[in-house]
Amino acid sequence: MDWLRIGAFAILILYHIGMVFVPWNFHAKSHHVERWATVPMLAVNAWRLTLLFVVSGYASRALLARSHGLGRFVRDRSWRLLVPLALGVAVVVPPQAWVELVLRYGYPAGYLHFWGHDYFTFRRLGQVTVPTWNHLWFVGYLWLYTALLAIGVAAIRIRRAQHGFDWLFGSALGGVGVIVVPLAWSTAIHARWFQMVGETHALVGDWIAHLSYFPAFLFGFALARSPATMRAIGRWWPAGAVLAIAGYAYVVGIERGWIGPWGPALFARYGVAHAAQQWGAIVALIGIAERWFNRDAPIRATLTEAVFPFYLVHQTIIVVVAYVLWNAALTAGQEFAVLVAATVAGCTAFYYGGRAVPWLRPLIGLRRQS
């Protein structure tokens, strides 16, 4: 699953670069906003974040197994998540808020004035609440789910729960439950309970996110010790791929105006299509990863370590570079290429620079050197 985790974060970084060019809300936009660019973005929009929580839950099972007790696991995960989150909110994220205020709301002061006088005032400037965690909401949610997981592990019989998971998703009805059960849950969320409702990433009251991502995190945690479920995924991933493609085609048809008109009935069908694309893609990607990428390579360990530092800093690099390119008179292709190159270079420098300095390592989510 390491390669799938690496790929999931790489897709997320490319997705955030794409956000500069599509007519969706983002902190900085290009002059070359194109509606057609939503088509490739929609190919990953439904499942990219859910997949991150699945692979994070999977990794958490291995971390728990290596820890000396549940308390040590919680302490280690808190250190590895909350310290970088604090650094991110205080230092990494503020340039994003400043760029957004300058470009969208005409904020008149420079960055240092903003950071020193306005950022930590706990108020709204324009439509931007400061301070903010922006894309680092994922880290906060991941810590919360880890804490809830630890409570569950302490409170229930984990072996009995694991056996129930193995039966439901790996054995019952030939393992088809690995598709049917999560798909039914996702359909209830998107087609019935929260039709066309967006996530807030505000932690409190963000029920559509929690009902989607916490079960995905738990699924990944249980999957890590469930050979039966992994075999079921190996059997059913082609069906998942078909569901994902069909759901994507329907979503694109609605978004492009080929299917309509908009209304409650269409909202429900959109939710079903979104759910099909979401879970079908996840099953297909796990199956493909296990079938063709379940092998090691010399660079895997480095990339596995680098994904979290890359995640911490990537969006700030994207937003700042987009701001610098605002009046650069580049074509859309040139601007996209510069953003990709600058993001890769900046993330790489952040990772290797932080890795080389012992006291910086925990600040960027790396283990302390022994």
Describe the structure.
This protein has 370 residues and is mostly helical. The protein contains 14 helices and two strands; from the N terminus they run ααααααββαααααααα. It has helices at 2-18, 38-45, 48-66, 70-92, 94-105, 111-118, 137-155, 158-171, 177-193, 207-223, 227-255, 264-292, 300-324, 332-356; strands spanning 123-125, 128-130. Strands 1-2 form a two-stranded antiparallel sheet. Strand 1 and strand 2 (128-130) form a beta hairpin. The longest helix has 29 residues, at 227-255. The protein is globular. The mean pLDDT is 96.
Approximately what portion of the residues adopt beta-strand conformation? under 5%
Radius of gyration: 21 Å
In this structure, how is the largest beta sheet organized? 2 strands, antiparallel
Q: Report the principal-axis shape.
A: globular
The helix content, as a percent range, equals over 70%
Give the termini distance in whole angstroms.
26 Å
Strand arrangement within the widest β-sheet reads 1-2
By DSSP, the count of extended strands is 2
Structural class computed from helices and strand pairing: mainly alpha
Average the pLDDT over all residues and give the rounded result: 96
Per DSSP, the total helix count is 14
Spans of at least 5 consecutive residues whose pLDDT stays below 50 are none
